[in-house]
Automatic annotation (TrEMBL):
It comes from Piloderma croceum (strain F 1598). PANTHER family: CYTOCHROME P450 MONOOXYGENASE ALNH-RELATED, P450, PUTATIVE (EUROFUNG)-RELATED-RELATED. Transmembrane segments: none annotated. GO terms for cellular component: membrane. This is Cytochrome P450.
Length: 90
């Protein structure tokens, strides 16, 4: 969110920027971008979303998810790298 032509003042906290004005189009929903919509929708959309939900809930319920530690026992903070598309690399 650092492209100033798309997000004016990206470092400023401004929830109002997401309120749509009458002349603006609605932003694309990530689910529609991924699975399509109307006649061209992916027939396994619900299966995929339910499977992802079950996997994430199972991981959170059974594993202790926390930051890795270095040799001195201090937590290592991962640095995310922005990229185009729906994913983000760590």
């Amino acid at each position: 969110m650092t492209k100033r032509n798309i997000y004016p003042e990206p470092s400023l906290f401004s929830p109002e920027r997401w309120i749509m004005k009458d002349d603006q189009k609605e932003p694309r929903h990530p689910s529609k971008v991924t699975f399509g919509f109307r006649r061209r929708i992916c027939p396994s959309k619900e299966l995929a979303e339910d499977s992802i939900y079950i996997i994430v809930v199972s991981i959170l319920a059974t594993l202790n998810v926390q930051k890795a530690k270095d040799a001195q026992g201090k937590p290592i903070t991962p640095h995310g790298r922005n990229c185009k598309g729906l994913t983000r690399y760590l």
